Amino acid sequence: MVEEYHFGSITINGKTYNHDVEVRWGGEVLKWRRNESHLFNIDSVKRAVEQNPDTIILGTGESGVAKVTEDCQKFIEEKGVELIIDKTGEAVRTFNIICEKSLEEEEKQRKVIGLFHLTC
């Protein structure tokens, strides 16, 4: 699904994006913005959580500069959603692995959303 990630750009299903993205399990890609550029808070993830995913993967940038607030982590976990936080390169790999495994399992589509910060 995610074909390539480099600092500042990500290619998903043949299309390259130069802004942070929210990628949903069915292949939908949305522009993702946060109130504070290097801080993920509840408002940053609310739209994703409202989709009732099984897993949310947060990509914190190439060097992992972006931080996830404790309230944000708690908000996601209290909704029963698995949370994975990693540098964006690793987060993208994890997203692809989960999606691939999900497709291999009959009648078990895992709902996974990747929120990927592309710089820093």
Task: Describe this protein with a few key phrases.
120 residues, alpha/beta, Hypothetical Protein Mth938, Chain: A, three-stranded antiparallel sheet, 10 strands
Compose a concise summary of this entry.
This protein has helices at residues 42-49, 70-78, 88-104; strands at residues 2-6, 9-12, 15-17, 21-24, 29-31, 39-40, 55-60, 67-68, 82-86, 112-117. With 120 residues, the chain is an alpha/beta fold.
Describe this structure in words.
It is a single chain. This protein is α/β, with parallel strands linked by helices and 120 residues long. It has a single domain (2-117), classed as Hypothetical Protein Mth938, Chain: A (3-Layer(aba) Sandwich), CATH 3.40.1230.10. It is 28% helix and 33% strand. The chain contains 3 helices and 10 strands; from the N terminus they run ββββββαββαβαβ. The protein has helices at 42-49, 70-78, 88-104, and strands spanning 2-6, 9-12, 15-17, 21-24, 29-31, 39-40, 55-60, 67-68, 82-86, 112-117. Strands 5-4-10-7-9 form a 5-stranded mixed beta sheet, sandwiched between helices. Strands 1-2-3 form a 3-stranded antiparallel beta sheet, covered by helices on one side. The longest helix is centred in the last third of the chain and has 17 residues, at 88-104. It is globular. The protein starts with a strand and ends with a strand. The mean pLDDT is 94.
